[in-house]
Specification:
The chain has six helices and four strands, in the order H-E-H-E-H-H-E-H-E-H. The protein is of the alpha/beta class. The protein has a four-stranded parallel β-sheet with strand order 1-2-3-4. Helix 2 links the parallel strand 1 and strand 2. Helix 4 packs parallel to helix 5 and helix 5 packs across helix 6. The longest helix is centred in the N-terminal third of the chain and has 23 residues.
Length: about 160
Amino acid sequence: AERGEGAGVEVAWARLTDGVARLLAFAAERNISLGFEPEPGMFISRPKGYAQLLERLGNEGEGLGLTLDVGHCLCTGDLPVPDVVREWASRLIQVQLDDTREGFHEHRMFGEGDLDLKGTLASLEGAGYKGLAQVELSRNSHNGPDAAKAALQSLREARS
């Protein structure tokens, strides 16, 4: 398992897989897409934990997409980010874009961390990703309009 071993971990897996399976059945009846986001510090913190979840769900997990926060990849050491994007491209349902320094879970403006933004965007485009890619700058909400303007400029520069 991604986090430790033992009976407690198996109980957590059982609860998670049962809950996700029920959500997937509910969503399928309503034609709703679901994405799972690995979150640093949580039970499933990395894409490999998402892979374990899919394995445990078996056929019931077919409809479970991946919400990939590229900053989380830097935080958890899942590098290089463009390779992670390519590896999971067929499962991506949503992408969250933010920068951070390797090993830290701190959403930063583009250019303030270690993200290869140009390579990440190129990998999304090269994989044919057509879903949402949104900028997540929670620590900049006090300065929303200016942060959005700067982020958009960074995205434009990275695509040129």
